Protein 1
Amino acid sequence: MSLVTLGKRGAFLAPLALLLVLSLLGNVAHAQGGFAMSGTFGQQQFQIPQGAEVSGSTIYVVVFNEGDRDLQVRMASEAPFGVEALFSEDEFPLKPGEQMKVYVTVRVGENAVPGEYQLLVRAEAAPEKVEGIAIGTAVAQRAKLTVTGQSALVEARVVSPDGQPVVAEVRLFKLIDGRENEFAFSNTGILEVKVSPGHYVARAYVGGKKLAEEFFDVAAGETKTITLTVKTVYFAHFGIVLNYYTETGELAFVKVVYQISNLYQPMADVGLVLKVSLDGEALEEIPLLSLSELSLGDIGGSWEYTPPQGWEAGTYTFQAELYVGGKLYTTSLEEELEVAAPTAVTAPFNLLLIVSIAAGVLIIGMAILLVVVLRRRRQY
């Protein structure tokens, strides 16, 4: 059980403050009122060089509210100089019975001092009043951290058998005392990361399935290039082509072009969806393709897209998602389009030319008429 007087950002508020006690029992920490934490962070053994960071889908804590009160939770950390813990969620509410999974990234600065440390991450619940004293709870996990002064580079890429880049999950693990510790993660099929020397394994996943892996050693100062070849369904091409009105030069529509390559096996119940967003907010999802079976080989197509409300100023994002059996299998890379604020509408060039010619004819006609009138006056 953990009790502490909390104020703004966890500061002590009263002279009678109670000491914070962090209960770390196995992988689960408990505090008063059913406030608890579990997860994998406390099992990690980080070995990180100066100027690098570690993150991954297997580095996280889970915060629980098993009590009967609403809680406002804030994440914090205790780290040595030059080291910081970054959270996917810094602050969030938890109703009774709810939980939150928080991913942790450990960043080591260039000025961090090499050595062995303990790194603590903590979840603090907002205080409640008990007999005039602000009482709060906190739970934490602690991991081992080694900051090294030596580093190397790892570049991992996922490709098809014919050498084309494949959008896939790439995960890099460091083997320490026979245990795998996730070091880095990418969902683009390309991973470039600064690492500490040692023994590693890189793996490629598509649709949640491991399709390739490679074990390797990397020495201090070395740049290691790893190629993971996979047979799978992937986007061989995805892009956008802009089309403009000839008369005004304004954007008319965007042609979305895609090509899917299946090097894996025939797959049933396949769907392709185009997702469009504006400044990070979802606009719409458009079905592009629906097949009872996707055969081996290539298939492609295009779609002419115009926003329902017309083009607005901002950043449009286009991405295609491939579903198999109703579940997301893979995605394309994102394509972005910057649309500027609309300018004043000008007359088309052809119209301006006609008006100019008409004005010229009118002026010449008036000049001829004036000459005729003047000659008649002289005659009289």
Note: The first helix runs from residue 349 to 379.
Protein 2
Amino acid sequence: MENTHLISAAQKFGTPTYVYDADRIVQQYNTLEGAFKPLTVHLHYAIKALNNINILRLLKEQGSGIDAVSIQEIHLGIRAGFSPQKIMYTPNCVSFEEIQESVELGVHINLDNLSILEKFGAQYGSTVPVCIRVNPHILAGGNANISVGHIDSKFGISIHQLRHVCRIVDNYGINVIGLHMHTGSDIIDADVFLRGADLLYQAAESFPNLQFLDFGSGFKVAYKEGDTFTDIERIGERIKDSFQDFCKNYGRELELWFEPGKYIVSEAGKLLVETNVVKQTTSTVFIGVNSGQNHLLRPMFYNAYHQIENITNPEGEPKLYSIVGNICESDTFGFDRFLSEVREKDILSIHNAGAYGFSMSNQYNARLRPAEVLFINGKMELIRKRETLEDIYRNEIELPQLAKTEKKHVDLV
């Protein structure tokens, strides 16, 4: 997907627009799957990263399953054609009614709460198999908001509560077929996975009916030149050795599961924006674009770095800018970036926008969410229309007593 394709997409579909490269998504999927062969590996794409039905169907063609964290995401996966048995449901702080609905749908259930596990056992006993999410108390991840395996995290059942888990399982005869962990995102150290893996291997001794171990994900991609990233091949080699040793000790071969999201789609996506103004202040030259944190929240929420490129004036003289949005907050996409000279109407491409871009977008300031486009088989295909004002107020209900247009006149004495 070259810049000429991106410019063509901006001209055809307008801006701001998300553009995704189908070939890159498939490439990332195959790289990850291949890193752990010859083990029996199942990848469940984390739908929260990017949930457009066309992206889901593209990954389904590759053999992927779905990792869902809400009942709504389960329904999105089913709508895209995934069978329930290809969907792993990992809820957190949801009602038991939602878990009951997921059981009726027939998906894999992954529980991370002792009280919910006990309710589950009381209702279903051994009739519905379940996976248990363990919190390994390993601090990992590039940002506090995406580090989920530490002792203060709300996610998972503490590894130190394993004895209590076993009491509940034994009391209700719960059929535990999987153990799961997820330490966080942006992990580059194989030792983090191995430390967590060792804990799961030890915990597995208490559950004789396991069919799989799920190591979550968290694989890091590079956001800028020289940035660190997960060496998938290296991690694959180390995990393969430890997992094969575990299976030998356990007495039979188990499946190895992962739930990649960002790794699959991040680098495949770009957000195209148009320059509204070039604003010189006493200390900074701002590039004001027709987008903001309502379209790409990661720079504000995670302090994430996204490379930004001027694709309509690539040969211009490099100058120092801060790129900001049109929202009434300090919605900065990038501080002090060297870009080829930017002029009004120039199109900027914001890289690594495939994951947690559109899926975290919103209608703040009554701004419209952008269009989505997929570059597939050499063509730019529209896969989501740009929102309209009707989309913003579609679900509003006007009260008749407040809908009067006549203005009352009040006499002042």
Note: Residues 135 and 220 are 20 Å apart (CA to CA).
Protein 3
Amino acid sequence: MSHTVTSSDSGSAVFRTTLHLPGARSGKVRDTFTLPGDPGAARGDPARLDRMLMVASDRISAFDVVLPCAMPGKGVLLTRIASFWLKWIEGQGICRTHLLSTDPAGVPGSAFGAGTTTRGELAGRMTIGRLCRVVPIECVVRGYLEGSGWKDYQKTGEVCGVRLPKGLRQCERLPEPIFTPATKAVEGHDENISFERAAAETGAELMGWLRDKSLEIYNKAAAYALGRGIIIADTKFEFGLPLGEDGEPVGGEPILIDEALTPDSSRFWPADKYEPGRSQASFDKQFVREYLEGLVSRGIWDKTAPGPDLPASVIEGTLARYREAIGKLAG
């Protein structure tokens, strides 16, 4: 059953989604289901294919721990910016994406009933996408030196096996963006790995395509964002192979899936306040991380579940940053 909280963004907060649909899975933030295809549709009609329903909840995670409090309206904001970017990426001719619709009318009435999430609660926070076999690699692109990359660089002078020039400062812009893949962990922390290890897991040709496409998306999106006053310091993408009627990949190039270039999956910094050599002001959930790091430094929390509740000031401060970034990027 969905957990409801008053919200100025969406009227209510959805902490968890319940629907009468198969394939229910719950991630850190998103709940996904399968929308069965219509076996009565003509062969070759896309309506015959199963699709995916993805619902962006108002959960928030940090350090791979889902916090117990809702952030009302966050899922609506994430869906708005993700759908903007997915349409923009396709419009730029970079690659295909999984996005088919964001209309709740596409969810059959049989999905709803007593105790389920309502169609109204899905409005603004759901995506219907192509069903894919997920490539089990997080495609991370870094344009600036921060986070785990900064920590690795301080220890080794490298980030995921990529040797960088000496003397770089925290949050320094890199000579050119780098591709630093990571494993996709079902539970716990994703692990940064080398390109060679990722290629050994997926195949060199596929990994080369994912690297080149991830860098192309990042470079074009970062230029677009910078023109609107936002630095995209780093981000991560996921790709999948579209499935046919038999449940097997249909062949061809992978497509971009899940979310893209949101404050949950990227570091967004205000360009007019950027100064290397220190941590940056941000439009993303770094605001939450910094609050939690304060709890860790005081011995109140140890970055394991269950996570702590967030005070109202941190919730509202995070949502305000998300709204400002989305306003600048997507209007």
Note: The first helix runs from residue 74 to 91.
